[in-house]
Structure formats: structure tokens, C-alpha cells
From TrEMBL:
Residues 201-317 form the DUF58 domain. The chain crosses the membrane at residues 12-29, 35-54. Coiled coil: none annotated. This is DUF58 domain-containing protein. Keywords: Membrane, Transmembrane, Transmembrane helix.
Length: 424
């Protein structure tokens, strides 16, 4: 009963107080008719409160997300269906759906009279600006009786999952020989012969051990070829995403981390569309997603879902301790990195395997000012160290479009291949 009384509105409480006052006056004045009115006035809000509290299954609802997976910056929509069970009358219904701040304003609806036997459809938009796994809900309803004397809050629907994936940008072209695991043309990847374990060969470079010369390939190509069987060929491309919080600047959709995530998603889907296997790893080599070159959109969703749920890491520096690509070609998307981290990353990468890097000018993402002459000295120094180690490097800022960065990266890969060929 106390719980029922807690749902009384201001009108119901005033009516109850007026009934009690009328009853006291009726007793003092010995007015039986006034006492009868007082009893009715007191009983009305109490009966209504008990009736509303007892009818717990009178309102039903459902929620549907259209769609339940959407890219950041694109619009989505929520469809609510509301109905009334039973033949009991229903008063005003106030609906409020729980929407995170990142998805927009919290919607509210007022249904004055919920009809019996008919579904009331309600819609409201969502405008997610940031990637992530968002929870929509719960949907709460405030039920009011037809007299406006009592109201109760009820949870009609729990949470619904909305996956906000990073924005994907269309890219064109591929580095020469992309996906073969080495910077040279795919023709250097030969087999040793029937019944012999596959052997990877490459052109002889000054300083190579002559005991590793593969004479059969040397005779076939009329050039000295050496074996590199200790690094078995693994086709495909590894995309390394540096998502350390300390390596990025800026907040919201314009943060350098969000740019890096979006570019990583675009590269992964573009390379996979070309038929190459794609491994997405963190800065420490942890596999975030592994998708073959064949297959439908389900594998694309695996990559996008992994990036949607990705949170900034708390490590201060990049310390892989091994080759994060495991013999594949590598495309690293890096924030601010120290010289020690650059040296360790380059140390574990063999020079015969293609290594590409996109270095983000992260201070420009925080200040909004990007100019080559104002780039951080650390970014330029890191780029110089990677280039000296044989990497193809492109520096990206917020004013450079992703297709332009990718085109420059392809040209950097071509230039690196030319250097390799000229050093033979």
C-alpha cells in the first residue's frame, strides 16, 4: 500500500488531503452527507493507486535498430512499437528511451490514449559521431491513470546493442607485389623442386653468406639467388595499428587515434578486396582480426567490429620484441613514437620484406594547424630513422586525405623497390 501511495501525483495527493480535511470537518459538524463525500474523495486516489500498481502487464513494447551496425557519422533510426494488453483503460503514457550522449539527444514521447488492439509505432533518429559499442536503452514508461491521480515508472525494454564501426574511405591502387610478403616481384618466390620443401629465394646482396646460394634458381635466372628459408613465406599483409593513448592527440571525431582507426579499416578492407589475406595487429603484435582474401562481407565485419570495440592502450612506448608481421609485409600506422621504439621495430624487420609506415603528425590533430615546416621534430626524426632502415614512410596530418596518404604510400613502396633493385 505504501508503494502504491508513492505513485500519487500532486493532484492525487491534494485530493487525498482534501478528503481527509472534509472527513474531519464532517465529524466536527456532524454532517453525514459531507462524510460520505469525504470517504469517496479519500477512496478514489487509493483505489486508483492500487489498481495501477496491480496491473503490471498492461503495456507492451518492442525496439528495433535500423540498422544495428552503422558507420560513424552516418544516421541510424530506432523503431519502437507500443501496445496495450487486456481491456483495462490506459491513461497518458510518457516514454523515454535511454540514449548515450554520443548518439544524440534522449527522445521522449507522450501517448495520450493508447488504443486497444492496435500497435502504435514511434521512430526517432540516432546520429553516432564516434565509433564504439553503444547500448540503447532501457525504455522506461511513466503510466498515468485517466484521472491523472497516480503514475508509475516501468521498464518496458532492456538494452539493445548498436555497433558503430569506423568510417571507411575508398582507396585506389596497391603497392607493386602487395600481399606476397616481400618487396620484390612475386617471381622471385620459387620452389626448390618436386619433393623438396618450399624455399624462398631473393637476389644476392653484398655480405650474404655464399653457403646460402640456391644454385638451381641461380642457373634458371642467370643471377645469383640466395635462400631465406629461415623466414618462411607467409602471403598476405599485416596492418599494425598503434592505439596507445600516449601516442595520440586530440579529442572526439577529429582525434589522431580516430583518424588512424579509420585509415586502418580502409586499408584492411581495400587490401582484402584485392584478394589478399589481412592481419590486423596492435602495436605489440596482438592479433585483433585475421581475415582471408576470399569470403564475403562477414570477414569485413570481423575487422570493423574489432576496430569498433578498440579502446586506447595505456602502454607508454612501443615495445614489440619480435616481428609483428611474422614474415608478411607490414603496413604500420603509428602515432608519436620514440627513437628507441623505432629502432626496435626496425631491428626485427628483415630488409628483404616490405615495410611501410604512416606516421601521424599528432600535434597537428590537437592544434588544428598542419604545415610541413611546423611538424614536430620527433615525427621527422622518426621518419628519417625508418627510411634509413629501408622503410617506405609517409607523414600524415589532418589536412591530408586518406586516399592521398595511400597513394603516397604506394609511391614510397615503388621507390623502395627501385632502391632494392639498384643495390644488386
Amino acid at each position: 500500500m505504501l508503494r502504491s501511495l508513492s505513485g500519487l501525483t500532486t493532484r492525487g495527493r491534494c485530493l487525498l488531503a482534501a478528503g481527509v480535511a472534509a472527513a474531519v470537518c464532517a465529524v466536527v459538524l456532524n454532517e453525514r452527507d459531507l462524510l460520505r463525500v469525504a470517504v469517496f474523495v479519500v477512496a478514489l486516489p487509493l483505489v486508483v493507486a492500487g489498481f495501477i500498481a496491480a496491473s503490471r502487464v498492461r503495456i507492451g513494447a518492442s525496439r528495433r535498430l535500423l540498422p544495428d551496425r552503422v558507420a560513424a557519422g552516418w544516421a541510424s533510426e530506432v523503431e519502437l512499437a507500443l501496445w496495450r494488453n487486456g481491456k483495462l483503460p490506459a491513461g497518458e503514457v510518457l516514454l523515454e528511451d535511454g540514449v548515450p550522449y554520443a548518439l544524440g539527444a534522449r527522445p521522449r514521447f507522450v501517448v495520450e490514449r493508447l488504443p486497444h488492439g492496435r500497435v502504435v509505432a514511434l521512430r526517432y533518429p540516432l546520429q553516432p559521431m564516434l565509433r564504439g559499442i553503444q547500448q540503447v536503452g532501457p525504455l522506461r514508461a511513466t503510466l498515468t491513470d485517466p484521472f491523472g491521480l497516480c503514475e508509475f515508472d516501468r521498464e518496458l525494454i532492456g538494452h539493445s546493442r548498436l555497433v558503430v564501426v569506423p568510417r571507411v574511405v575508398a582507396l585506389w591502387g596497391l603497392p607493386n607485389g602487395a600481399g606476397i610478403g616481400a618487396g620484390e616481384d612475386g617471381s622471385v618466390r620459387l620452389h626448390a623442386g618436386q619433393g623438396e620443401t618450399d624455399v624462398i629465394v631473393r637476389h644476392y646482396r653484398q655480405g650474404d653468406d655464399l653457403r646460402k646460394v640456391h644454385w638451381r634458381s641461380t642457373a634458371r635466372r642467370d643471377e645469383i639467388m640466395v635462400r631465406v628459408e629461415e623466414r618462411p613465406w607467409r602471403g598476405g599483409t599485416t596492418v599494425l595499428l598503434d592505439h596507445r593513448a600516449a601516442a595520440h592527440h586530440g579529442t572526439g571525431p577529429t582525434a589522431s587515434l580516430e583518424w588512424a582507426v579509420s585509415f586502418a579499416a580502409s586499408v584492411c578492407l581495400h587490401v582484402r578486396k584485392a584478394g589478399h589475406r589481412v592481419r590486423l595487429v596492435s602495436e605489440h603484435g596482438k592479433v585483433l582480426a585475421d581475415a582471408p582474401g576470399d569470403g564475403g562481407e562477414g570477414y569485413d565485419n570481423v575487422i570493423l567490429d574489432a576496430l569498433a570495440a578498440l579502446q586506447p592502450a595505456h602502454q607508454r612506448d612501443l615495445t614489440p620484441g619480435h616481428d609483428p608481421a611474422e614474415g608478411q609485409e607490414l603496413i604500420a600506422i603509428l602515432g608519436t613514437v620514440s627513437n628507441e621504439a623505432v629502432g626496435e621495430l626496425a631491428r626485427f624487420r628483415p630488409r628483404g620484406i616490405r615495410s611501410l609506415a604512416v606516421l601521424l603528425d599528432t600535434p597537428a590533430f590537437a592544434s588544428g594547424v598542419s604545415a610541413p615546416e611546423q611538424r614536430a621534430a620527433a615525427t621527422e626524426e622518426s621518419a628519417a630513422l625508418l627510411r634509413a632502415a629501408g622503410w617506405g614512410v609517409v607523414i600524415a596530418d589532418p589536412d591530408t586525405s586518406m586516399p592521398q596518404v595511400w597513394a603516397e604510400l604506394c609511391r614510397a613502396a615503388a621507390g623502395r623497390n627501385a632502391l632494392i633493385g639498384g643495390s644488386r
